[in-house]
Amino acid sequence: MKISKLKIALVLVITGMVTGISLTVTGSATSNDKASSEGFYTSFFRYSSATGNIEPMAESPPVTPGLIKYGEWTYRGLCVGCHGVKADGNGAVWTLADELSPRHKLPRKPRDFTEAVFKIRSTPSGSLPTDNDMFAAISRGLVADEDMPAFKFLPERDRWAVIAYLKTLSERWEEEKEYQEDPIEISEPPMPTGEMVVAGKAVYKEMKCAKCHGDLGKGDGPSAPQLKDDNNLKIAPRDFSDASRFAGGSDPKSVYQTFSTGFDGTPMPSFADFLEAEQRWELVWYVMSLRTGWTLEDAQAELKAKNGKNSG
Amino acid sequence: MSNKKLMTCIGVVASLMMASNANAYKAVTVTNGGSISGKISFSGAAPSNPKLDITKDKETCGTSIPADYYIVGAGGGLKNAVVVIENIEQGKAYDKKGKVPVDNKKCMFTPHVTTAVKGQKLAINNSDPVLHNTHLYHGEKLKTMYNIALPLQNRVIKKPLRKDGVITVKCDAHEWMLSYVYVAKHPYSVVTAADGSFTLSDVPAGSYKVKIWHEKLGESIQDVTVAAGGTATLNHSFGK
Description:
Oligomer: heterodimer
Number of strands of chain B: 21
Strand order of the largest sheet of chain B: 9-15-14-11-12
CATH architecture of chain B: Sandwich
Distance between the termini of chain A: 28 Å
Order of helices and strands of chain B: HEEEHEEEEEEEEEEEEEEEEEE
Structural class of chain B: mainly beta
CATH superfamily of chain B: Cupredoxins -  blue copper proteins
Shape of chain A: globular
Mean pLDDT of chain A: 84
Helix content of chain A: 40-55%
């Protein structure tokens, strides 16, 4: 059942792309075109999720010219609609949205791979992401406010091929090899307690998170209205009450990673230089406690279940 | 992999390595070097600086700050222009572990313009009791290099400067804050003083292209020939 749905999604994706491309050629949109493009859009995102990092089953195949070429063709088939022929984020879905379907305009400009500034990374601010970071982003999508769909329906080899191709698009990958920093260390999350949440509230205050995210984490702090991303487009700080909209992932480790490494290309900075591991976990649990319907008991039970699954 | 392919690979790698070596600056002992000095100025009436709109943290930032884009002194001397040699592959040594300070003070960056050598570190401090974040952008398209939160006062954070060129420094928490770090591949770069004067010393004798850069007035490239032990003069005037 699940697989057949995914297949349908894939077909719709391709249909959507073809429709998008034919629109750019003819420059005119019929009502049929619009309908199929909307179908493409909604089915695309039904499969997106923002939960945790998706680990590959196996390592990337060796990067060969063949794999890169294969990645390029996979990119041209699936990614070009948003990210563009030049991979600079100027795909038709972005550039023609005002003309064709303003209602479905993406809230953020698709990533420009020629600049290689990546938002979600396990590496410190200023470093390139690891291959696994890119694998996770492609697999789970960035549904929170960018509407990058999840491509976990693609065979792993195809995802690795796309990554190999993307890494040929910017000089940064070669130039910065000598500076590349390792991923930050993240332990297994400690069991949350009421004391940790209270301590986390103090960390939230000390780190001045409220400046952007607001006192109650609603994304309504005093700096919120002026924030802009690298494309000079307005960007809102995350509202912590909605767990489904955590761009970097909503599980404890992902929250830990997000404020530790920052979101390069956005106003979200790295707090890594100011926090010890213990404080970071406190902050994680406090930020998670701001979710609508969150209870300590549920969080403890969830973590216990997860730990049981891992050790068993 | 066939032998032929392998050889091609080795060839490509070798040529890449040679290319990067040719690009790298080599520190040597400069004997009987010369210098380039002069004055960068602005002719005509100095453009007025806009008043920055202070929207928050007024108890720390104040209520009205004039921007520091144009600082023109007596005789038209232009402060905060950068003078940098464009094509120099070897010359004087420099402190590879050097730190270039940038302070967040009263919601302005101090200094407003500074120069550094690629690989040196930026030493970022927050003198204010409010949250700042030092967001470094590279190039004209302003793409993020780093974004470091500074929630606590007086703790210096050091970050390496990995790319050369103009680095724009901003603070997302206070959108009026702005400064520049001009990162060169070598130590022959300098920011002009309040009277527009500058000196680049220990320059090996030779002919150079020298760039004069200003954040608002753009750039100009001049040919300068430095004689052994001599002083070459470079004056440039922006404006009409």
